[in-house]
Amino acid sequence: MQQPSGKVTPLPALFSQSSFPSQSQHKSKEHSFPLFQRNQSLQLPFFLNLFNFLIPTLFSSQPFFFSDPYATSYLISLFSSQAMLDVSRLQKELVECNRDKQISGVSISLPDGSHDLTHLIGSITGPVSSPYEGGTFTIDIRLPNGYPFEPPKMQFVTKVWHPNISSQNGAICLDILKDQWSPALTLKTALLSLQALLSSPEPDDPQDAVVAQQYLRDYPKFVATASHWTAAFAKTSAGIEEKVKRLVEMGFPEDLVRNTLKSVNGDENLALEKLCSG
């Protein structure tokens, strides 16, 4: 193997002065960079040239630097552009997801009055024959600029009692939202995976340790608590007597439950929080 000479590695042809647009070209809206087109992947020759450029630099005894600051600026903008959200794909995903929402039980929409495609609202129905049946759960979805090469960030807005979902902030423990994400997956498949997670919890890899321990040690109580949370947070408003019954089943005195509900104008969620806080 040829040993490094210790000299500053010269820029290859890819990054020669002639490869960069002039300042007038850079400002022109009509100019397009030869190596990159928006919403498209960088071509193989680019990566090969970049690889041949970086490897000698890494083994150089002197720190690498660009002698031309304009070239440096151009290179930074080149890589920044690569991380742009693929809007065309995202639009197709939204159409596909909402096409059969009555069958799949999952859908995606924009927050009211918003046009920001990086912030979406997902909705999933609770699986049949689970403590979450009959509930509708709202998911906050944030898309990084690198999507679909980076996973979406999802978090339950609706409170849910589940080993793999935080009962405090809705954070989710699911491998495909972390290291097992693939660009071949979509927002719809991610929501369907969350729906399946409701049916089949993984208490050995929990997000909420308290819920996981209850699931493992007292499963009937887990089912009762999860069902109550579904009724309280994921279903449409019920009559006052139903609210009283559910809260009393949680172990609170009936008189205290009625007085608390009255103090919060019948809001069961606020009543539960007030009862729990003492």
From TrEMBL:
The active site is at C173 (glycyl thioester intermediate). It holds the Pfam family UBA. It comes from the Eukaryota. Residues 10-25 have a biased composition (Low complexity). Residues 239-278 form the UBA domain. Keywords: ATP-binding, Nucleotide-binding, Transferase, Ubl conjugation pathway. InterPro entries: UBA (IPR015940), UBA-like_sf (IPR009060), UBC (IPR000608), UBC27_UBA (IPR041974), UBQ-conjugating_AS (IPR023313), UBQ-conjugating_enzyme/RWD (IPR016135). GO terms for molecular function: ATP binding; ubiquitin conjugating enzyme activity. SMART domains: UBA, UBCc. This is E2 ubiquitin-conjugating enzyme. Its EC number is 2.3.2.23. Residues 1-26 are annotated as: Disordered. Residues 85-235 form the UBC core domain. Transmembrane segments: none annotated. Belongs to the ubiquitin-conjugating enzyme family. PANTHER family: UBIQUITIN-CONJUGATING ENZYME E2.
